[in-house]
Amino acid sequence: MNQTSLGFSSSRAMAGAAFMVLAGIAFAGLNVVTQWLTMTLAFPATSMAFWQYGFAFLFSLPFLRRAGLSAMRTEYPSRHVVRVVLAAFGVGAWVSGLAHVPIWQAIALVMTSPFFIILGARLFLGERVGAARWAATAVGFAGAMIILEPWSDSFSWAALLPILSALLWGASSLITKSLTSLERPETITVWLLVLLTPINGAIAFSAGFAMPDGAALGLLLLAGILTVVAQYLLTLAYTVADAAYVQPFDDLKLPLNVFAGWLVFGYAPTGYLWIGAVLILAASLFIMRNEMRRERAAPAT
């Protein structure tokens, strides 16, 4: 490798890491806005999800115009619908969780999503898991239990909502994974953008629809903008650098959200958070490094 290509690769890696960190900051801001709306202003969680992604859809219209409705042509419409329904219910569980539990606890528990993906890949995609991945999954869930403390008097069933969102998002990710070998990225993205708002709307109306005004309206507009910005930065991170390289920077979302929760709400996480979080992070990084080794060892096709 010559010096020019080395500098180019290094600059792309730095850009990917920067985009991932900026995405984490945007998501932390979004979580603060979500918790302020649902916990402080008591805005209904289901309506919050509808308006957040409804405004995000409006801000995404330039992308939809460029992609065109032709991008929705597919031979797997039911698979797309199920994927988006799971994602929508995951959003609902996440927003509802932020209405009841501190940001630091919610973000640490939602980081169990990779472990649900591993379980789902074994059960539904027939992938071989292996002892190492099973062990990492067990360690990750042990970390989640330490954070939850279901044995303590302070335990609330609402604390399970972030785990439910992780389960639903993990299931949605599995379907997305199965579609990536069959569909164009534009098709997968457009189906999500087009379906998410009406599905969220149906969920919101079934639970009692709420119209925003005043501060709530301003915060929902901000949530829509932050959603688009965060997703765009995430896409840029995976575009300019390898996913295996930038993924560890995504784990910075835990300290970023802990800091945001402390700065705005004064949440002070307990020592148990860090014990559980270390187990979850270590298990996630182990799985990632294990997958990289497996990919390098796989014969070229």
Low-confidence stretches: 1-8
What's the N-to-C terminus distance? Answer: 23 Å
Oligomerization state:
single chain
Tell me the overall shape: globular
Q: Could you give a short account of the major beta sheet?
A: none
Rg over alpha carbons? 20 Å
Describe this structure in words.
The protein has 301 residues and is mainly alpha-helical. It is 79% helix and 0% strand. The chain is built from 13 helices and no strands. It has helices at residues 3-40, 45-59, 61-67, 77-98, 103-110, 113-124, 130-148, 161-180, 185-207, 214-240, 243-250, 253-265, 271-297. Helix 7 runs antiparallel to helix 13 (271-297). The longest helix is centred in the first third of the chain and has 38 residues, at 3-40.
What's this entry about, in short?
With 301 residues, the protein is mainly α. It has 13 helices and no strands. The two termini are 23 Å apart.
Topology:
Layout: H1 3-40, H2 45-59, H3 61-67, H4 77-98, H5 103-110, H6 113-124, H7 130-148, H8 161-180, H9 185-207, H10 214-240, H11 243-250, H12 253-265, H13 271-297
Helix pairs in contact: 1-10, 1-11, 1-12, 2-4, 2-9, 2-10, 4-8, 4-9, 5-8, 5-12, 6-7, 6-8, 7-13
Features:
disordered N terminus, 301 residues, mainly alpha
